[in-house]
Amino acid sequence: MKPKFITLEGMDGAGKSTHIDSIIATLQACGHEVVSTREPGGTALGERLRELLLHENMHAETETLLMFAARREHISNVIAPALLRGAYVLSDRFTDATYAYQCGAKGVDVDKIQLLEKWVQGDLQPDVTLLFDVPVEVSIQRLANAREPDKFERENADFFARIRNAYLRRAKENPRRFRVIDANRPLEEVKRSVEEIVSTL
After folding, report:
1. Does an H or E element contain 10, and which?
2. Mean pLDDT by 10-residue block, N- to C-terminus, for the chain (201 residues)?
3. pTM
4. Most buried among 9, 149, 153, 165, by the most CB within 10 A?
């Protein structure tokens, strides 16, 4: 069976990270090795860049370039080797997040992101992307009760609305890859939906 590259996407506060352990358990129960990782991050260098990206103010294009620099390391050192040996890779965010945050919310030209995507990733794309979707006001409310927010989580409602719209647009443009999950439901209902999707892989 061909190994799968699965990504989790959504606005901050959508609850995607809550389901990572459940997804790993479902895949492992089917006998698969699972490599769980995240972006930005995933490597020693990527984690150092993550701290800059989440907490330092910078030009949106600088942010984009650093995201792809971290992604190149991530693919080279984690994702590609895992897929090559037959493991499933589960990544908390990938390039769709760059389209949503840097392009959709901050206005970086889509052509520039597409050029970087092709350069850094070649033909690598996720096999399945789980998009956890909630209304903007729900996302903001959840973040208000969470840990100390990073610079993205401190943004206003308009910023979050642009992110959500960009994600939903990506899902509409890539219907075979995306599975949009209504995450504005009780946790157990969302969990069942996720497990049903993953079990079909």
Report:
1. strand 5-10
2. 87 88 92 96 97 96 98 98 96 98 97 98 96 92 77 89 97 96 93 90 76
3. 0.94
4. 9
